[in-house]
Write a structure and sequence with these properties.
The chain is an alpha+beta fold and about 450 residues long. Helix content is about 55%, strand content about 15%.
Length: about 450
């Protein structure tokens, strides 16, 4: 009961008590009335005591409520302060990431400029070598002169020219090699910086979107709806070639380049066309894949294995050389897992054009080999280290479609460059240097 109501009740009782007093009665009745007054006064005293206790208790509760409100207000202020600090820290980190991206772009431009400089120097070396060859050919085709005169002037003069040119070529080759080493180091540094920035940006975003991403991941695990390969996309109605995301059975999703044809969808696993991507990589790079799906790339041994293990697959090999000749062949393909060193098993299906096999593996298959994983079948040499790149080497002379890309056609005449470049050996024993290579796979049902 509230205090005003208690006061009103008290006044009401007093009024009733006053009205009960007699004005002109005997002494005995007055004595009885004073007893009633004592009883009422005692009741009023107890009522006042209860009212006082109630008021004290209400004050204590109000103090507790005020203390809790103050604590709550301080907690809210602290949370707001921490949120503001986190926002400022996130803003500072975002500015740092932007600055690093700008530095990375600037470094990329510097690397590009140095690459152009190296290319120009390489062209200069090639031009000097061509002129030297022309001079030597001209001297060798000139009619014979007097032997004494030739011995005293012609031959020493040519020898001096050739010696000077050889020294100059050696110096230029050494300089180019140094520039290439520097470019490779800068490229590795740039890649590491880009990976570091990507991780930081990803961690910042993950902190704000963790709940949503977890829900999307759970939904993706149950109902991903992704195609198994490019031919599965074709069956679902996709007819445009390009980059898509696929998810083979019991595998994580990854991006692939799809080539849609009238037959169906082909998944491209390797592409060489202009030498923009170095294929002289080690085991881990060939395992995970490298390059750009919009240019030159290697899809990755793990991805190729996850695709080929889904059933019977075809491999189509398409080659072209510097003379404009094209060659294609089809095989049934199986690629084992890493425990079997990603061994390749091929069964010749058909050739398109010249009826000739481009690659052979035998019944037992051929393991994949790189410079740091010597798994080739040659006993006394590491073919990947000798020829560059990584490949399914039976021996060092049959084929290497992941070799170095030749920069100029006239370099193909030089044995060392030819041995380290892309090549395949015909059934006639001719070593054919290549200009473009395309490897793509699809289920055997594409032929039906």
């Amino acid at each position: 009961m509230k205090t005003p109501q208690l006061l009103i009740l008290l006044l009401t009782i007093l009024v009733h008590v006053a009205a009960a007093f007699p004005t002109e009665r005997g002494g005995r009745e007055k004595h009885a009335s004073w007893d009633d007054v004592n009883v009422v006064a005692h009741g009023l005293l107890q009522l006042g005591q209860g009212l006082k206790e109630h008021v004290d208790k209400s004050k204590i509760q109000m103090r507790d409520v005020n203390a809790k409100l103050k604590a709550f207000n301080s907690t809210v202020a602290e949370v707001q302060r921490k949120q503001q600090e986190q926002d400022e820290a996130l803003k500072a980190k975002s500015e740092e990431v932007e600055e690093r991206e700008r530095l990375a772009a600037q470094l990329a431009e510097e690397v590009k400029a140095k690459v152009e400089e190296v290319k120009q120097q390489s062209e200069d070396v090639h031009s000097r070598m061509d002129r030297l060859e022309e001079k030597v050919d001209k001297v060798l085709t000139e009619p014979e002169v007097d032997s004494n005169y030739s011995d005293q002037t012609g031959v020493p003069f040519i020898q001096r020219i050739m010696s000077a040119q050889n020294r100059r070529i050696d110096q230029l080759v050494e300089k180019i090699q140094q520039q290439q080493d520097k470019l490779e180091k800068q490229s590795l540094h740039l890649q590491a910086l880009q990976r570091k920035m990507a991780k930081r940006v990803k961690s910042h975003r993950r902190r704000d979107e963790e709940t949503a991403l977890r829900g999307e991941a759970e939904q993706s695990d149950t109902k991903s709806g992704l195609a198994r390969d490019c031919h599965d996309l074709f069956v679902r109605g996709q007819r445009v070639s390009g980059v898509y995301t696929v998810q083979p059975e019991n595998s994580k999703p990854f991006n692939v380049l799809c080539e849609m044809t009238s037959e169906g969808g082909w998944t491209v696993i390797q592409k060489r066309l202009d030498g923009s991507q170095s294929f002289n990589q080690l085991w881990e790079s060939y395992k995970k894949g490298f390059g750009s799906l919009n240019g030159e790339f290697w899809l990755g041994l793990e991805s190729i294995h996850s695709l080929s293990k889904q059933g019977q697959y075809l491999l189509q090999v398409e080659l072209s050389d510097w003379a404009g000749r094209e060659q294609a062949a089809r095989y049934r393909i199986t690629v084992d897992g890493e425990e079997e060193k990603f061994a390749l098993h091929l069964e010749h299906e058909s050739s398109l054009g010249v009826q000739e096999e481009i690659m052979t593996t035998g019944a037992s298959g051929v393991p994949f080999s790189t410079a740091d994983r010597d798994n080739d079948l040659a006993a006394d040499v590491n073919c990947a280290e000798l020829l560059s790149g990584g490949w399914w080497f039976r021996s060092c002379g049959e084929s290497n479609l992941n070799g170095k890309y030749p920069r100029r056609p006239n370099l193909l005449r030089r044995q060392q460059s030819r041995r380290q470049g892309m090549f395949w050996t015909t059934t006639k024993g001719q070593n054919v240097s290549l200009k473009t290579v395309l490897l793509k796979i699809a289920p055997v049902t594409i032929q039906q």
